[in-house]
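Input:
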Amino acid sequence: MKHVKTIQKSCLAESLRHGGCGECQASCQSACKTSCTVANQACAKKAEPAK
Amino acid sequence: MIHAFTALGRRMALDVGSGAVHALDALAYEAVKQWGTLPREELGALLCVSFPKDEVEEALAELEALARDGQLGADDACADIQPPEPGVVKAMCLHAAHDCNLRCAYCFAGQGDYHGRDRSLMPAEVGMAALDWLVKKSGARRALEVDFFGGEPLMNMGAVRAVVAYGRSLEKTHRKKFKFTLTTNALGLTDGAIAFLNEEMDNVVLSIDGRREVHDRMRPAPDGSGSYDRVLRGAWKLAEARKQQRYYVRGTFTRHNLDFDSDVFSLADRGFEQISIEPVVAEDTAAYALRPEDLPAILETYERLASEYIRRRRMGKWFNFFHFMVDLSNGPCLRKRLMGCGAGNEYVAVTPAGDLYPCHQFVGREGFRMGSVLDESFNVDIQRQFAANHVLAKEACAGCWARFYCGGGCAANAHAKHGNIAAPYEMECEMERKRLECALAIAAEEMEWEARD
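Output:
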């Protein structure tokens, strides 16, 4: 496309199909302890090596 | 909902419902700002005032293709999503010590003693009982997280070692995997402590505020002397021993250093590669507390920080800033985004006496004691209240474009500012939105470089 460059395609709806396992890190434990950011937490399921 | 914004001189759009992120030229940016508010013909006519007609048609066709593909103007109501039922607890903040060997002016832990309630160390037996409790409460979850916190946990290293050893033994018998982490002021980082932490801790958070004068002003020793040199020495040794991975140097900024980008760069100049600087949590009456009138300066600082961050990373002086990380391709699922940090629901804090609270910041707050790991009492009503406090349930979050990135904000800050865990602290929201805009612009810039290289 000439006027738009897509940096990231749609991902949230798709995440409902594979997500929700709860194995990922509690975001507050990672570095902040006083604020809340979830978008920088990796998905534990997708990070697993392929079986 | 579509959020069109500029950051770092870039025009961008975040499609809230789909999570798609777009970099736009001037024409597409103007079109996206009006997208969905005007009929196509009217929008086209409006854009033709400033842009050539054939270009306008081309840009609108591109945006229409994105909309058809579900990447622009996607539904963001999430009407059919039900957050999971409460019950499972899988993460714990273990207060190994309600005591500290620093006297930081802004400490929300009351300089270690949690506001005079006690100055005590957690017996190893209490820590072990907490792990037993967590294993029981975690159901089928395999990955369990335990952060040793304080006060200063290195003041109680004997118990930390014993609890970790006990956790390892539970892994075998219960098919669990403990991810231990520790948050420290770095004063007690002996060679022996560093070797142990590097062996056992998934992550270590090291408290240091940045520039020497900034750090020493807020983080003095009990005798009033500065702690910077000793902290820097210990933190650096650990970071190097961990090969600059799986740690953070974590600072706090106050209204005394609204130019906290200089503190980030000070840490980067000393060779730290994993950096986080957080806004102070304080009573409004404190001289160092952030005030609404500080916000423009804070937002400018984030923008300045982002520009220099890009420049340094491009020049080969790579470092990572926690709040500019945004995992666009491998990020959390939508359910996780709704639940935020999980405080009071999947995540709890345990005091040296074994008392349970929704998180470390709630410790000692009236009405939030949830029970005890020693007698297994647990107030499920409080857990339900926190579980129900998800992003979709918060009135203030309904109209916010950042709601799937912040997790709905910090419940402890909301309660401290408004007496209500469901009413996010507005300044925190403003800062989070700015950090996110910067993060998305950084991602766009770095993707372009990669494509060019």
